[in-house]
Design brief:
By secondary structure, the chain is low in regular secondary structure. Helices cover 0% and strands 0% of the residues.
């Protein structure tokens, strides 16, 4: 059934699907893994991070962290 949609402002789409109107089946799939140190992923206008010592454990014994094959 069609819908009336008013003004829409989309600033940023990073992956995924934006759908307006009718749809039968939408199933976006993605996975990612990142290893960062402390204070690395801070965002904002003014960020001050004081780290004395930073270390990341990159040893990963898992073969599959987030399987997306077959997920509906």
């Amino acid at each position: 059934m069609p819908a009336i949609i008013g003004p829409v402002q989309i600033i940023n789409v990073s992956g995924g699907i934006v759908q307006f109107g009718d749809s039968l089946y939408i199933s976006p799939k993605s996975n990612s893994k990142s290893t960062t140190g402390s204070g690395t992923l801070n965002t904002g206008g003014f960020v001050m991070t004081n780290n004395g010592l930073s270390a990341s454990n990159v040893l990963d014994a898992n073969l599959l962290d987030q399987p997306t094959v077959g997920n509906l």
